[in-house]
Amino acid sequence: MRFEDVTDRRTAEILRPWLIARKQIESMDLVGEGAFATVYKGRYLRDVPPTIVALKMLKDSCRKEDIVAFVDEALVMGECHHRNVVGLIAVSIDQYLQLPIIVVPYMQNGDLQTYLRRIKKEEDKQQQ
């Protein structure tokens, strides 16, 4: 399944300002994995020096519904502007699999849910 096979013209137009060439990002270490996507620490090479970012990539076994939900996630992130919400930096398309890659700021403590679970676990240990 390819990005262009599931993206309608309207969605493609909305994403256009966010699109960057794949060569502008470089993946480094795997930092997380979910049911249909993986997250890598990476570099946004357009900036000098390169900005450390998180690259969220769909797995190659994804379904059409996964791609649509992934693109919708990118669109929501692109429209959300709040200092307490991670915003979208860019979207790229993998040159081989033709799947979208979401580029967001790298958060050293990971995603909010994982961070809150870790803090809760630490608090529970201290109370014992």
UniProtKB/TrEMBL annotation:
<dbReference type="InterPro" id="IPR000719">
    <property type="entry name" value="Prot_kinase_dom"/>
</dbReference>
<dbReference type="InterPro" id="IPR001245">
    <property type="entry name" value="Ser-Thr/Tyr_kinase_cat_dom"/>
</dbReference>
<dbReference type="Pfam" id="PF07714">
    <property type="entry name" value="PK_Tyr_Ser-Thr"/>
</dbReference>
<dbReference type="InterPro" id="IPR017441">
    <property type="entry name" value="Protein_kinase_ATP_BS"/>
</dbReference>
<dbReference type="InterPro" id="IPR050122">
    <property type="entry name" value="RTK"/>
</dbReference>
<dbReference type="InterPro" id="IPR011009">
    <property type="entry name" value="Kinase-like_dom_sf"/>
</dbReference>
<protein>
    <submittedName>
        <fullName>Insulin-like growth factor 1 receptor</fullName>
    </submittedName>
</protein>
<keyword id="KW-0067">ATP-binding</keyword>
<feature type="domain" description="Protein kinase">
    <location>
        <begin position="25"/>
        <end position="128"/>
    </location>
</feature>
<feature type="binding site">
    <location>
        <position position="56"/>
    </location>
    <ligand>
        <name>ATP</name>
    </ligand>
</feature>
<keyword id="KW-0547">Nucleotide-binding</keyword>
